[in-house]
Amino acid sequence: MKVAQLRSVIRVKKKRYKRSIPQYVTENILNREFTANKPNEKWVTDVTEFKYGSSQKAYLSAIRDLYDGSIISYVLGHSNNNELVFDTLDLATKHLKGKEPLIHSDRGYQYTSYGFKSRIKKLKMTHSMSRVGRCIDNGPMESFWGTLKCEKYYLHKFMTYEELSNAITEYIHFYNHNRYQKRLNGYSPMEYRAIAA
Length: 197
Known about the structure:
The protein is an alpha/beta fold. It has five helices and five strands.
């Protein structure tokens, strides 16, 4: 085609992302053992994307405790970057009081960075990672994203970042304090957590 100076009229598909080379990886220590015997024993974390207005994007990072399913910390931001993930971890670990939970993530570039590794090491936490292409390895976090989007996000059209932020804050408070669950014997996550305390 180059020699004949021909050019296709079909649009070239845009590359959505550049594959990053992980700075470090670790094993899938959690190994789909999604139950925990006490609070702050096993955490899962991830980032998900939301759209608002005319195709603008926001990113939500969260950490979930596998003991009661509660959302320990979350940060909404305009960029899916290291700062978003690091701020979420800092919020979650502020009140650990010497506890050293296992934290499980996928292999996103934030979690495979030296910055995340050094924070985990400093906190004496154990890092577990999903295997490549195995979303189910982080099933509880993926499940929460689905619940949040079905019960709140998909039911509304959000025109501004502030509207989206307020809705997410409202829903996570509801989820933690007022969403009663059969697997928690009819308690909300925070009620179940209080009983354990």
